[in-house]
Amino acid sequence: MIDKKGKLLLKLVLVMGVISVWVGSVIPAGWCAQSKVVVASTSWTGAIARAAGADEVRVLAPLELKHPPEYDYRPTDIAKLGQASAVVYAGYEPFMKKLLEAAGYPESQTFKVRTTNTPDNLKQQARQLAAKLGTVKQETEWEEEFEQVAVDILEKAKVQNAARTRVLVQQHQQPFVEWLGYQVVGVFSADELTPAKVMEYANLQPDLVIDNYHNPQGKPIVAVAKCGYAELINFPSVKAPGLIELFKENAGRLGL
């Protein structure tokens, strides 16, 4: 015979079992593992994972690479995936598709982020990843600090009269530069510029050419237009490993 306490304990065990099965069915294995170890394709996706609150982020492409998406994965990277709660990538890294296939990594534990350096986008990506990882509290704390830094940078851009500064910008820096409020008069690509294109852009009479450090093309324009020049980074570096540090670094490169 089972007494009342025994029956209550049995019911409790059964309910906990049902809850456990339900959770396991709706949350992919690994997403909410006790330790949030994330493997990231590059320092950019890795910085988003850190912002989301991941306990540990292992970046595949070395920070020393000038253009990290060109990284070619190594056999040791397959082992890194086996230890990961999740894998974060952007989708434009050719090596990631090959690596995920070679490792047989479950698609349910991968997360694709949009790498655009504007506060609204980065917060959205971090929030979505945090919801998957179960690290919403950590992400919220990061977001509060990030928002204050963004406000400070915008204020400095206003003081420097960014709205009246005529800028030619490389396409991969356009979102960040427009967020700062610069007067964008032209956008050039990451492809090598022809002499005709150089003259076309120089005739726009920019005050400043803002280039992309990872694949710069703007210096020929500067030589003709006789204007200012700055190179900004998209991928975090040893000097600026996180998104907050990256925003501060780019602001400093613009004299803000």
Features:
256 residues, alpha/beta, Rossmann fold, 2 domains, 4-stranded parallel sheet, 48% helix
Q: Domain count, please report it.
A: 2
- Could you tell me the number of beta strands? 8
Look up the CATH topology of the largest domain. Answer: Rossmann fold
CATH superfamily of the largest domain: Nitrogenase molybdenum iron protein domain
Strand content: 5-15%
Query: Overall pLDDT, averaged?
Result: 89
Which structural class do the helices and strands define? alpha/beta
Global geometry: globular
> Percent range for helical residues?
40-55%
Helical run tally: 10
Could you characterize what this model shows?
The protein is built from ten helices and eight strands. The protein is α/β, with parallel strands linked by helices. The chain folds into two domains: 111 residues, 3-Layer(aba) Sandwich (Rossmann fold); 94 residues, Nitrogenase molybdenum iron protein domain (Rossmann fold). The radius of gyration is 23 Å and the shape is globular.
Protein topology:
Blueprint (H helix, E strand, L loop, with lengths): L3 H23 L10 E4 L2 H10 L3 E4 L15 H8 L3 E4 L4 H10 L6 E3 L6 H15 L2 H24 L6 E5 L3 H7 L2 E6 L6 H8 L5 E5 L6 H7 L2 E5 L10 H11 L3
Parallel strand pairs: 1-2, 1-3, 3-4, 5-6, 5-7, 7-8
Helix pairs in contact: 2-5, 3-4, 5-6, 6-10, 8-9
